[in-house]
Amino acid sequence: MKEELLKVENLRAGIEGKEILRGINLTVRPGEVHAIMGPNGSGKSTLSGVLAGDPRFTVLGGSATFHGIDLLDLPPEDRSHEGLFLSFQYPVEIPGVTMVNFMRAAVNAKRKYFGREPMNASEFLKMMRQKRAIVELDNKLASRSVNEGFSGGEKKRNEIFQMAVLEPRLSILDETDSGLDIDALRVVASGVNALKTSENATIVITHYQRLLDYIKPDFVHILYKGRIVHSGGPELALELEEKGYDWIKQQVDEE
After folding, report:
1. Of the residues 90, 108, 163, 209, which has the maximum number of CB atoms within 10 A of its CB?
2. Residue 142 CB-half CA count within 13 A
3. How many other C-beta atoms can be found within 10 angstroms of the C-beta atom of residue 168?
4. What percentage of the chain exceeds 90 in pLDDT?
């Protein structure tokens, strides 16, 4: 069995004095896809924010180790350089900064972190063309300001393009299916699937089974009231789709 890529133990965290995560335990190994599902307010986006280093959240206890490194001890930019990628539910627009310049700066910041020389313009543009093809990103979008004037589907596709360029060890997709029509969902999912290797891993955070028709999970976890209350294989998502979250709520509340 492969060593853990991410090991979260009894993680507790909150915001503005309110505890949201109440003891999360999660182990992710290279090559795995984990889906985290749960009703609104269960802590799904809080978990992704805490792992990525969002300063709005306060860690109250527990640990998170990322390929042997204390993840919670790193600033957000170093978590990114070490290979953690977060795809936002609502990607922000950055007017005046082209995608090309934005991504070249990100790539070269990561190279600098590991003591490597910056990538020159011709090398970078060649890589951009290769990665753009994976997610079917139009060249015109790549030359525009980051997400400015993009549709919801274009923004999500752009996030997967960034993921392709940065080649993270662990990608966290926070409700990346939110607001997508079926065609955009297929394109985004195919990009995620194309980027999967035996050395990286993905955590998919979603409300709905439909995304998991395209991104096949190895494990499904149900998050409720700040805890993972149930884990299983892909069939768990289908059961949840059939029975709804009330089934889980009733089950947990009776315990």
Report:
1. 163
2. 21
3. 22
4. 49
